[in-house]
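Let us work through a complete example step by step.
Step 1: write down the sequence.
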Amino acid sequence: MANTRLPSQRQWQERRADERFPLILPVVVKYHGSSNKIVGITRDVSAGGIYVYVPAWPGEGLSIRFSLTLPAALTSFENIHIAGVGRVVRVERLERERMGMAATIDSYEFLSPRYVRLPTVQAAETVK
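Step 2: predict the structure and record it as tokens.
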């Protein structure tokens, strides 16, 4: 019989190509084929992926667009606004009305501050 054991969390982390940084930031996500924008909170971000707490169940394999702002406190310069495109690779039901979504970052660009309108989110309250 074939071995069907799933990799442990440690094995998943070792397979990641990019180091992930724990960042709790508001992020706006738009799923391919939908005009709705969903506000989520990041758990961690790397150059090649992002993990976001979202209120609605996204399907694995869906293409996404997202935007977030790295605050000046992190960049040691000024706020950096980022828009990106990726794909949902894993979805986890965490609580009754909250999901976790892991997505690749396939491409991203830096935006001019005048084009960015991200919502204000109380991250500490949302991530409980």
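Step 3: interpret the result. Residues 9-15 form the longest helix (7 residues).
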